[in-house]
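Hello Y.,

Per our agreement to keep a running log of every chain we model this quarter, I'm adding this entry. I've kept the format consistent with earlier entries: sequence first, then predicted structure.
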Amino acid sequence: MGEPRVVHVEVNGQRYPIRSALDPGYVQELAAYVDRKMHVAFDSAPSSDALGLAILAALNIADEYFRARDSQQQVDG
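Predicted structure for the entry above:
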């Protein structure tokens, strides 16, 4: 990883400066993924506020992570 720098990303219509040593393109990819998850959350709960949508998106992302982790543990035995 290189020196930390500021990468400007947009999630749910808001711009955020993210300070990271990660590749800027990768940070943009992460932000785009979170943005898509926010839109999915909005589709399932359109009356939620931004915080509620963020929590729903975070829960969906955590579920994906846990399922992938559990699946990998089964493969590894």
